[in-house]
Specification:
The chain is mainly alpha-helical. The chain has one domain. The chain is about 85% helix and about 0% strand. The chain is built from 4 helices and no strands. Helix 1 crosses helix 3, helix 2 packs across helix 3 and helix 3 packs antiparallel against helix 4. The longest helix has about 90 residues.
């Protein structure tokens, strides 16, 4: 008989946890059901205070389960936010590397062309100064004219406006 009463009380408590709207009514019903099944000696334990404690414990379990679910939802959102931040960072790093890989050859070509242009101009000026110092003969005068033409062609090939 006592085992049947505990089974009915357990079922009633399970229903209380699952449906918290009518906790008080179910608590009174559980007290009545359990009181009929128990003998008169053990029915003293089933008074209103015990039923109220059971109802409060059921409410506590319900509140804690809701809090655990909310904590899990918040944890999932935090993990998703961190994953998004890491993804944005990785994309930013990859785009930066892509820009560097594209711009580095262009920068190297610019520096190389500028250096070649300036180097060609310096070489032409050096040759012209050397020829001017030895400009006594007509052969050297022809070389001076040729060097000036070459210097102009270098300026045309590498105009300053592009650099």
């Amino acid at each position: 008989m006592l085992e049947g009463a505990s089974l009915v009380c357990t079922l009633t408590i399970s229903v209380v946890v699952l449906n918290p709207i009518s906790l008080i009514e179910l608590g009174h019903k559980a007290r009545q059901d359990c009181g009929h099944l128990l003998s008169n000696d053990s029915s003293q334990f089933l008074h209103d205070g015990v039923i109220e404690v059971v109802v409060l414990l059921a409410l506590l379990v319900l509140v804690l389960s809701v809090l655990v679910v909310l904590a899990l939802v918040v944890l999932v959102f935090v993990v998703l936010a961190l994953a998004l931040v890491v993804l944005v960072f990785v994309v930013f790093v990859l785009l930066t590397l892509l820009v560097l890989l594209v711009s580095l050859p262009l920068l190297l070509a610019f520096v190389l062309l500028t250096t070649l242009r300036r180097g060609g101009m310096i070489l032409q000026e050096f040759k012209m100064k050397r020829i001017r110092n030895n400009s006594r003969s007509s052969k050297n005068k022809i070389l001076i004219v040729q060097m000036r033409v070459q210097a102009k062609s270098i300026k045309i090939a590498f105009p300053k406006e592009h650099f």
